[in-house]
Specification:
mainly alpha, 2 domains, 77% helix
């Protein structure tokens, strides 16, 4: 019953993200809206982490299974990808490096800001 309640919380934030996506004319995916709302609820303390932690861990454990279908789909379209695979691979590697760099810089900036906000003894 606890996992069902946790799943309903996650589903509720997902549906709220869908509603925001439909209501606002911004090019932000519904899933991003839902995650942002869930993050704000958790960060503000309005939703305790225990309310979604168990189901969240379960869903994270299932995530690798979600990549099987796209991988099989790549096998199906390989004749079209074969001539351009070096360019596609280069784009994937470059975009991954950029995402790592931006994530690292944002994390360092946020940690630096948090250290400044902490009172010194």
């Amino acid at each position: 019953m606890r996992y069902l309640r946790q799943f309903l919380w996650i589903t509720g934030f997902t549906l709220a993200g869908e509603a925001l996506h439909a209501a606002l004319p911004l090019p932000i995916p519904a899933a991003v809206w839902g995650l942002a709302l869930l993050f704000l609820a958790l960060e503000s303390g309005r939703l305790p982490l225990d309310s979604v932690a168990g189901c969240g861990q379960f869903l994270l454990g299932l995530m690798p299974l979600l990549f099987i279908a796209p991988a099989v789909g790549l096998v199906d379209v390989w004749p079209m990808l074969a001539p351009v695979w070096p360019a596609v691979l280069g784009i994937i590697v470059l975009s991954t490096v950029v995402v790592f760099a931006v994530t690292g810089l944002v994390t360092q900036a946020m940690l630096g800001r948090r250290k400044k906000e902490e009172p010194h003894d």
